[in-house]
Amino acid sequence: MSVTAAQGFTAAGIAAGIKANGNPDLALVVNSGPRQAAAGVFTSNRVKAAPVLWSEQVLRGSVISAVVLNSGGANACTGPKGFQDTHATAEKVAEALGGGHNAGEIAVASTGLIGVLLPMDKLLPGIDTAVAALSADGGEDAAIAIKTTDTVHKTAAVTQAGWTVGGMAKGAGMLAPGLATMLVVLTTDADMDSATLDMALRSATRTTFDRVDSDGCMSTNDTVLLLASGASGQVPAYEAFAEAVRTVCDDLARQLIGDAEGASKDIRIEVVGALTEGDAVEVGRSIARNNLLKCAIHGEDPNWGRVLSAIGTTRAAFDPDRLNVAINGVWVCRNGSVGEDRDLVSMKGREVRITADLATGSESAVIWANDLTAEYVHENSAYSS
User: Fold this and answer.
1) Is 18 helix (H, G, I), strand (E, B) or coil?
2) Would you name the residues annotated as active-site residues?
3) What is the pLDDT of residue 174?
4) Mind listing the pLDDT tens digit for each residue in 311-334?
5) Please, which of 21, 35, 134, 336 could form a disulfide with 10 given CB 3.0 to 4.6 Å?
6) For residues 9 and 134, what is the distance between their CA atoms, to the nearest angstrom?
7) Exposed, middle or buried: residue 321 (CB in 10 Å: 0-12, 13-18, 19+)?
8) pLDDT confidence tier of residue 181, bands split at 50, 70 and 90
9) Contact 186, 161 (CB under 8 A)
10) What contacts 24+ positions apart, CB below 8 Å, involve 284-288?
């Protein structure tokens, strides 16, 4: 159930001293082949961290032999020095691994505070330690090492007839992605080329990571990578492979929402009856980002008026007098007005389900969000200290 579940991969997670608290903060994932195909998606934020810019450049070659990830510092908004540090990190990994590795095939990912240079005097020696610790059982250690405010590490895997897709993710805040969310490394021992990996990954992230919207804040460091070793010798049908990738992405995305900072409710927002899928996604995001509604859900108040208010801020096609809203299966709003008795709604459980029916077409989309709590405010006000 980790990034090393697939054959051909080793990983490690160690404490390099990047974090002041001494917790693990450096992870390494290595693809020993025979294939080293790769694909990736990154943040659509126009402010991109140095590791994102570096890894985008690496992926132009469609080959990644290793990924080095650190927590404890985002290396974002750090100017030319930050990019030089990323390059130096990749060079160090290639040197430490030896055996023909080169920096142009080493992806780099970072997470933590923005605007702080990484302590390279600790990070670079840590790479030697990580290389020495590489193991086919090191996936869990790697997942632990990339945590920041995460309370738990996040891994998933799916095994089919002779081949596997596995992965790890980190993320608990700043979850409002465009193509990806926070740091995710996926691996497979299926024998797939980079073009196939890219198609499967983009299809999967479009309906999983891209539809997690915890707090409306998009990271500068969002990275999702998919690596193929081909070590199983199996070439599955595309449909089966793409579904396995989507399943692992969906599992990890749900774990991200479940660990969102300070959250007490996971909110599943399903928009139905939309004219286009784009309309459904836009409406779902608007509902997910409505802070008044998020507060109401935290207080277990089925305040459907806030759902309609959120829908009304979008460009989606709808008639206000035909809107319907259900909360946990109770249609509290019918035709833009009062529906069933709101006292019938129970919101005691962790998961709250909102259905918004635009009554305009046949398209739909699901967005996952969470409630807004005092703990969330505390976590994000105290984080830098």
Assistant:
1) coil
2) 181
3) 59
4) 999 999 999 999 999 999 999 999
5) 134
6) 9
7) exposed
8) low
9) no
10) 284/211, 284/213, 284/356, 284/365, 284/366, 284/367, 285/213, 285/367, 286/310, 286/311, 286/313, 286/314, 287/311, 287/354, 287/356, 287/367, 287/369, 288/213, 288/216, 288/367, 288/368, 288/369
